[in-house]
Every structure is written in structure tokens, then in C-alpha cells.
Amino acid sequence: MSEIYVKNQKLKEYLSELGSVAVAFSGGVDSTFLLKTAQLVLGDQAAAVTAKSSTFPKRELKEATDFTSANGIRHIFFESEELTIDGFAQNPRNRCYLCKSELFTKMKDIAKANGFAHVAEGSNMDDLGDYRPGLQAVSELDVKSPLRFAGLTKMEIRQLSKELDLPTWDKPSFACLSSRFVYGELITTEKLKMVEEAEQLLLNLGFRQVRVRIHEKIARIEINPDAFPKLLDPETRETIQQQFKKLGFIYVTVDLQGYRTGSMNETLSKN
Q1: Is 169 domain-assigned?
Q2: C-beta separation of 102 from 53 below 8 A
Q3: Which one of 9, 23, 98, 140 is most buried, by most CB atoms within 10 A?
Q4: Per residue in 32-61, pLDDT tens?
């Protein structure tokens, strides 16, 4: 048996040992694979739990809801407005820790109230290579990380997802909208809406992997470099510029390095 299937079997055995689990579900590649595998192993002893907030785009919420509905998975929703967490809106370096602490505390209460023994989240081995303060909260609250326990990487999760015919197997990576803000810049509902609508515009124009990083009133677009020619098409470029300015951006820029995860973390080593 190849290594990836050994890991997948380890994941299934671990989930079986947990007995029942509420999966923190965003509808992304990792949490979708984890949730579906949990359902295959545990049946109705697995459920999805999703937080509704201003940092979670409506399109992602709809995709998550559509998936659980199509697969007959119980889906529990709750309200979680990160901007009300003390210190979160000021966007400190440990912003993700503040968020995950509040989020998983609520999820553990919801899981207990609904008869689930554990809460599980979808981080994978690749997440250990970047600055991820949220993982501290995962550890402190004893939230389970089955994909990391099994040693699965993002590429392996995509491969296994494809074999399960999951719609997310080739879905672009996503992170909450707060990750678009440079550390120290105030996060507001208005700016979150600007970012969400700007990214939705790019998606509507046919770009797949997108980020719109916000620096006050400057938009810094990150896309895969192979999509640069499409972005620089005169008609497309004019549409983006006009629409972004209608959203409230004064300047619209393109990051020549292209899309990459955690680009805002690049500033940390320089401070």
C-alpha cells in the first residue's frame, strides 16, 4: 500500500477512535475532505459546525451549505462576530489566536450540547511551515487535528478528495478575509465588505486563485502569474480599476510576485 493510503487509513482509524466528532467546517479543501471522511467512518456521529461572520464570504457559506445538504450531513450554524473580540479589530500579530480561541470555545460548547465528544479542525502538515498562531488555540483547547495526526499534506488531501469525487478537490485555497489586512491596520466591517466584493469581482471575471490585500485605501491584487496577461487586457484592466474605485479603493495595484499564502506574514521578520 502506498504512503498516501497508509495515511488515509490512519486517519480513518483515528476518527473511529474518537467515536463522535463535530467538524469545524468552512467548505474549503481540507475541512470538506475531513468532514466527508468522518461521515464515511462515523455516519451520523459526525456533523459540521460553521460560524457565520463578516470575515466569511457569502459565497463560501453557500458552498458549505450546499455540500452538507447534498451529502445528508447535519450542519450546525452559529453567529461569531470576530470584530467584537477584545483586540481583534486592531489586527495584532496574534489576531488568528484571538479568533480561534473564541471560535473553538463556542464550538466545544455546541458540540457538547449536541452530544459530540470532540471538535476537529482541518489543518494539514503544510500549515506547520507558516506563521499560524491559531494552532496555539487548537492545542490549548484540545481541538483534534486528524489530518495532521495522519501526516497528510495539502497535495495528498487534494488527491484523496478527487478519488472521493469531492467538488473541492481542485478548489483554490482560501483564508478568512481578515488575512487580507496588514498587521496593525484596523479591521472594519466596511473594509471587509470592500475586500469581499473586490475578490468576488475577480472571480466573476474568471480568475481562480485571488487575493485582494488591503493597505488603507490601496488594493494589492494577488493572482497566479500565468493569469497576468488576462489581467492586463485593456478592457479587463479598465473594468477592475473602475469597479474597485467604486468600492472605495483609491489606488489599484498588482503584486508582481503573484499569489502566495500568508504574504502579510512577510512583514513580520522585518519588524
Answers
A1: no
A2: no
A3: 23
A4: 999 999 999 999 999 999 999 989 999 999
- Whether residue 271 has pLDDT greater than 50: no
pLDDT over threshold 90, residue 133: no
C-alpha span between 12 and 34 (Å, rounded):
10
SS3 assignment, position 59: helix
Do residues 157 and 181 both lie within one domain? no
In-domain check, residue 76:
yes
Instruction: Provide the grid cell at 72.
Output: 445528508
Same domain as 37, residue 148: yes
pLDDT band at 3 (very low <50, low <70, confident <90, very high): very high
- Provide the 10 A C-beta neighbour count for residue 222: 20
Q: Are residues 117 and 17 in the same domain?
A: yes
In terms of C-beta density within 10 A (0-12 exposed, 13-18 middle, 19 or more buried), how is residue 129 classed? Answer: exposed
Other CB atoms within 10 Å distance of the CB of residue 248: 15
Count: domains in the chain: 2
